[in-house]
Design brief:
By secondary structure, this protein is α/β, with parallel strands linked by helices. The chain contains four helices and five strands, in the order E-H-E-H-E-H-H-E-E. The chain has a five-stranded mixed sheet with strand order 1-5-4-2-3, with helices on both faces. The longest helix is centred in the C-terminal third of the chain and has 12 residues. The radius of gyration is 14 Å and the shape is globular.
Length: 130
């Protein structure tokens, strides 16, 4: 990984899986995270203050164009940022690299991979590791 090709194998083999993809949102809106948006709806049940989810690490993987306002939003809600882009560079498979790296290296973790398109559209992948 990191040489321009990254792969993330998704399947249903519960005995062998090392993580789960819980939600994917390729929002059609151009809302910012501090406004009421799809991202807030998806994450409303997944936050570090939720007593059912305590004991796990909470990591946001800042993809392309995560601005300071977005970063502050995640920090204020208890998430740690894990910057993976210096390890793999900026290419079309960087998101797969960041997610695969987290699933392999960070056990007992909720993670969100967050990207923001130049137009303002946000996308995220919410997952959990074993």
């Amino acid at each position: 990984m990191g040489e321009g090709s990254s792969w993330l194998l998704l399947g249903k083999d519960n005995e062998r899986n090392i993580g789960d993809i819980l939600a994917v949102d390729f929002g059609e809106k151009t809302n910012k995270t501090e406004e009421n948006s799809n991202i807030e709806n998806i994450l409303s049940d997944f936050n570090p203050q939720n007593s059912e989810k305590r004991g796990k690490s909470w990591i946001v993987l800042p993809g392309f164009r995560m601005n300071e306002t977005d970063f502050i939003y995640w920090q204020q809600n208890g998430w740690e940022a894990e910057d993976y882009l210096p390890c793999c560079g900026i290419h079309s498979t960087a998101a797969a690299f960041g997610i695969a790296r987290t699933v392999r290296e960070k056990s007992n973790t909720f993670f969100v991979h967050y990207n923001c398109h130049a137009s303002g559209k946000q996308s995220l992948v919410l997952g959990s590791t074993k």
